Amino acid sequence: PPLExxxxxxxxxxxxxxxxxxxxxxxNNTTFTQEGDEWIxxxxxxxxxxxxxAAIPVNFKKQYMLAFDxxxxxxxxxxxxxxxxxxxxxxxxENGDYTLPRTEGWSAVSYNLSxxxxxxxxPFKSVRVRxxxxxxxxxxxxxxVLREPNKQEIEAAENEANxxxxxxxxxxxxxxxxxxxxxxxxxxxxxxxxxGTVSVTGTTDATDFDGVGLAEIxxxxxQTKLTAVESFTPLTxxxxxxxFPRFAENGRDRLLSGWAVVRQEGNGYTxxxxxxxxxxxxxxxxxxxxxxxxxxxxxxxxxxDHADMQDLNIATGTFNIILDQIxxxxxxxxxxxxx
Length: 339
Known about the structure:
The protein has 339 residues and is mostly beta strands. The chain has three domains: 18-148, Sandwich (Jelly Rolls), CATH 2.60.120; 185-282, Immunoglobulin-like, CATH 2.60.40; 294-339, no CATH class. The chain is 10% helix and 36% strand. Strands 1, 2, 3, 4, 5, 6, 7, 8, 9, 10 and 11 form an eleven-stranded antiparallel beta sheet that branches. Strands 16-13-12-19 form a four-stranded mixed beta sheet, with no helix packed on it. A four-stranded antiparallel beta sheet has the order 15-14-17-18, with no helix packed on it. The longest helix is centred in the middle third of the chain and has 29 residues, at 151-179.
């Protein structure tokens, strides 16, 4: 019997998109040749860019995804994209979301053009793309189109919008927290390695102590919206003087905890004081000597393995540790599991 016609694939765009061609003029420091349906693009100097043109006007409200297949074995290239014929800041896109990835084979890439500050003028038919900063890169691309977003891209955009909304709400809460004058106060937090204790002192002017206590707040908690604390010690008077074992029963080191006077209300906690962290360590495990740099000169993002560093009397350096190069979610050769 004949097969039933297949339904729409939710992972594919609602429409395949409007094909784009590479404009054979107005390009800069690039060469491009076509082999079948593939374009071989070479960058030859600074600011290498090309234009993509659509044969018909594009509905920017719907078809705002620039997509193509790429084969790039050189390195990840940062992109600068101008949406429409006007090349200014209102129509510019550039950041970590807009790169041409390094691949070992053909890979589908797509870029959301709707994030520009201002929509392009009508009729919208062109996009300018700069591939990297300079020359000496060769890569291939095919099937450039402007299309509607697919299901995954829509979900990604929604997740990004939600993340931005949460960040904006957090910013408002932080500003409110930093501007607030609390009447209760944690005055001193000390840790003692020999005694194995963390001591907290402070005051509160609370008169109703129903639900009022000293809260231990982990360093990863959102102190502006407390829904849980590591420990809660009820208070009955205005003077606060509490001592805790430095290491909790679950092994957590209270040296890293914050402390605040809070009132437990419903499913959360309201801050009655600012959060206060450890001020000093008495009787430390080791009294390390003070480190004094040999000069005030420092440098960032450059390995300290060049004679120029010593010639310039560089005393301090900033180094980035890329976590996904040393931490993995799966076991492998030379990896030690950490629970």
